[in-house]
Design brief:
The complex is a heterodimer of chains A (213) and B (246). Chain A is an all-alpha fold and 213 residues long. Chain A has one domain. Chain A is 74% helix and 0% strand. Chain A is built from 8 helices and no strands. In chain A, helix 5 runs antiparallel to helix 6 and helix 6 runs parallel beside helix 8. The radius of gyration of chain A is 18 Å and the shape is elongated. Chain A starts with a helix and ends with a helix. Chain B is α/β, with parallel strands linked by helices. Chain B has 2 domains: 167 residues, Rossmann fold, CATH 3.40.50.300; 56 residues, no CATH class. A 6-stranded mixed beta sheet of chain B has the order 6-7-8-3-9-10, with helices on both faces. In chain B, strands 2-1-4-5 form a 4-stranded antiparallel beta sheet, covered by helices on one side. The chains are: A mainly alpha (213), B alpha/beta (246). At the A-B interface, helix 1 and helix 4 of A face helix 2 and helix 3 of B.
């Protein structure tokens, strides 16, 4: 698996994948809809898959001593590495913002525990739809992105709007008691993310086995 | 080395119908047919790039579909030269590629680069067509490939580069350890270097045999008064000839 991920990062990845992963630091911007960070986390992998059509990435990988389904596994690993990397990059800045921007985020959700939980749910939704749609053909990346980004955008918008509802104010909080209350959202997000990636690999690999390259 | 049994693949407007042939060690087999006859589809079916509807491919005594990694460790595939990551340097591509092969030999790779006059610091889009094929051959030989599969490796090459490549092919199989299967519609290349010929016409296998036997079996195409054996080119042209009623 490490060889596959290395190949994805060294040859297949579009430079924007790394730039967009670094945009985890946006949680330090005052009054900004932090849901955009997750949008960038979806855009980076999509751009890389789309770029792969230009670089003949699938053709190169298909000639390596791998099973055809390992091509799908490589892309799943790339998505996970980019998105988890983005979350890890953003974490120190999320801590920092509590000190630097104690007034909170009037534009939308705070970069708190619930925010990361919702982020994993958004990623899970996007990845499952995108990967299973793309690997039906191995080349229609634009359509796969369209099907995946619409529900992901709705979820991001819902997350940003929800915290303005008085009954859900605890979702927008960074108080220790509220952060504890938000922990189940993070746990659910992580479980759903792992489950969605495993399911995306299984379904996409089955579909890709039938694709004529 | 390679056994292909009754490969079938149907598309809406084309069907590959039961292609079968066998390639022995130390042999070069030319897969011929005009454009669109099914040569590339056949090669892609061998490699599971295209999923055949039925049929079986055996490489090195093992079923390819259920031993894909094992078989791919022992083959080198060149589909028209290196046609990927055009803006990457050869050194960057090789650094990734070699990690996937159990028997990659760095020393052999260096010597092939030198032999083929390939500069690892060059980017793919800076290479000529002949150099692209040679890079793929160097990579294949560096992981000890025993079976080399080429799809029209000489098309687009100038006569000198083509001859150079054909000489290389003969050298590669000389020790009897390697075999080459390559598709082409340039029959004069096969006159120079093939041992066996497999001929596909409109998705159907016409004949697969040792070259001399193959040529003899088509001598009924000779016209009255013609002396000597027909060449591969004449065989192909006469077999494919059509008449137009306009």
């Amino acid at each position: 698996m490490s060889k596959l991920l290395h190949k994805e990062l060294a040859l297949a990845a579009h430079p924007n994948l790394f730039v967009f992963s670094l945009l985890g630091v946006l949680v330090l911007v005052p009054s900004y809809p932090y849901g955009m960070v997750f949008m960038f986390g979806c855009l980076g992998p999509f751009i890389t898959v789309d770029y792969g059509r230009e670089t003949n990435d699938l053709y190169y990988t298909s000639l390596l001593p791998l099973r055809k389904r390992d091509i799908v596994l490589g892309k799943c690993l790339l998505f996970a590495a980019a998105q988890l990397g983005q979350v890890l990059i953003s974490l120190p800045f999320a801590f920092l913002r509590v000190r630097l921007l104690p007034a909170g985020n009037p534009a939308g959700i705070e970069a708190n525990v619930a925010y990361y939980g919702f982020g994993f749910l958004i990623y899970a939704l996007f990845n499952f739809i995108f990967l299973t749609s793309f690997f039906k053909t191995g080349f229609k990346a634009g359509w796969a992105f369209l099907w995946a980004v619409i529900p992901a955008t709705i979820c991001i918008a819902a997350m940003e709007v929800a915290v303005h509802l008085p009954g859900l104010a605890w979702l927008d909080s960074v108080k220790p008691a509220d952060l504890l209350r938000q922990l189940p959202i993070l746990a659910i997000g992580l479980v759903v993310y792992c489950g969605a990636m495993a399911a995306a690999y299984r379904v996409a690999a089955e579909r890709f086995e039938r694709v004529n390259l | 080395m390679l056994v292909v049994e009754n490969i079938r693949k149907s598309y809406p407007k084309f069907t590959l119908e039961g292609v079968s042939f066998t390639l022995q060690p130390g042999r070069i087999m030319g897969l011929i047919g005009k454009n669109g006859a099914g040569k590339t589809t056949t090669l892609k079916c061998l490699l599971n790039l295209v999923r055949p509807d039925s049929g079986r491919v055996e490489m090195f005594g093992r079923d390819f579909r259920s031993n894909e990694e094992y078989c791919k460790q022992r083959i080198g595939v060149v589909f028209g030269g290196v046609d990927f990551y055009k803006h990457k340097k050869l050194a960057q591509i090789t650094a990734v590629t070699k990690r996937f092969y159990e028997h990659w030999d760095d020393q052999a790779y260096e010597s092939y680069l030198e032999m083929f006059e390939l500069d690892p610091e060059k980017r793919v889009n800076e290479l000529s067509s002949g150099m692209k094929v040679k890079y793929m051959v160097a990579a294949a030989l560096s992981h000890g490939a025993q079976l080399l599969i080429f799809d029209e490796p000489t098309s687009g090459l100038d006569p000198v580069s083509r001859d150079d490549l054909l000489v290389l092919f003969r050298q590669l199989v000389k020790d009897g350890q390697r075999s080459i299967l390559y598709s082409t519609h340039i029959t004069s290349d096969l006159d120079k270097c093939a041992d066996d010929i497999t001929y596909i016409k409109e998705g159907r296998l016409l004949r697969s045999a040792e070259k001399a036997e193959f040529i003899r079996s088509f001598q009924d195409l000779k016209e009255a008064g013609e002396q000597g054996e027909l060449t591969l080119e004449e065989i192909m042209i006469r077999t494919e000839r059509r008449s137009y009623h306009v």
